[in-house]
Amino acid sequence: MAQSLWALFTSTLAISLVFVVIPFCRDVKVLASVMALAGLAMGCIDTVANMQLVRMYQKDSAVFLQVLHFFVGFGALLSPLIADPFLSEANCFPANSTANTTTRSHLFHASQILGLHHAKAQPGSNQTVPGLPPKGGTEVRVSYAFWIMALINLPVPMAVLFLLSKERLLTCFSQRKPLLLPADELALETRPPEKEDTSSLPPKFQPHSGHEDLFSCCQRKNCRGAPYSFFAIHVTAALVLFMTDGMTGAYSAFVYSYAVEKPLSVGHKVAGYLPSLFWGFITLGRLISIPISSRMRPVTMVFTNVIGVVVTFLVLLIFSSNVIFLFVGTASLGLFLSSTFPSMLAYTEDILQYKGCATTVLVTGAGIGEMVLQMLVGLIFQAQGSYSFLVCGVIFGCLAFTFYVLLLFFHRMHPELSSASTPDRPLGMENSDYYQR
């Protein structure tokens, strides 16, 4: 717990510092280094938060994971709204420029929002070169957006610091009033195991071998003597999230570019609502999934999500020239992709009885998918045109369903725990049908 809290404190504080520093970056290499630090901190937060929820609540973790990811989506939806008043409304291109029509049509929505001007001024034009930062107060106004986000994030590391003080993990507190005296610690270490009665404790306080600390999943003892299905479950579950989270990132990044291209040719302002609509329904889907996850098994939720994604992409592909179907399909994709990650995490940890490093592997697989599939879709979109965007979605959705079927197969092959391990189940659920495989 100590390592996890310190990792959360360091990472959340780093996020605020990064947002403060970003407006002062005048070189792309420096900006890339700062953004890499932000990505490292966000990845650490994602891994530690999911791991600790699974560790604490185990069989009941599905609901809490849905709550966690609801706030992730809510933050992704709220952040652009906070930054919007500080962004420039000026056109990114000269009004009399006709040589840059092709370049203009292929720019992504994020580039237009941030004002990244890749066009060059026409010879003899007295306009400012678009590649240079605007003069006056526009640059300062954009800086305010970053500083406001840093200020909004600041209470998070302060809250983690408060938890550290309550747990007596800060140096000043641990020296002044330790929780256990040395004699007490010695007594606990030498107490015979048969005298310890933990059957009446809640599940999160019962002793367990999994997730002793942040890096316990990397210890060889957790994998020693494990069957092949143990490793296959980790790989296939990570591949499912590789595809689904990769589709989430790729769709939100390129749906604007797809909408403004032929045959749809949606206006730039109307197309700009599509990413917001997508993230809005992701947030709504995660909110709806909180009560649903308390009644529906995670394996059923993942199946519903994957099938829904494949069907939605097929419908979008069939009606690729219909703008109404594009908006309805965007909302549908947001709903089906919203709860895939927390449901898959809860399902995989349930299979492995919370003794492996499934959380770390799944978070890593999802993060790699967001990076790789966005780059892959961008390259294909640039080379083959807008129609390839939906074709990629269908292919990735079918691959996600294939890996999900393989996960079910390896789950059936994986040996079940003996009855001697049943005390780790939550109290009052020893005879529940949920545990009858």
TrEMBL record:
Bilayer topology term: Multi-pass membrane protein
Lineage: Eukaryota, Metazoa, Chordata, Craniata, Vertebrata
Name of a matching Pfam family: MFS_1
Transmembrane segments: 5-24, 30-49, 61-83, 144-164, 230-258, 270-288, 300-319, 359-381, 387-410
Listed GO CC annotations: membrane
Keyword Mitochondrion: no
The protein, known as: Major facilitator superfamily domain-containing protein 4A
UniProt record similarity statement: Belongs to the major facilitator superfamily.
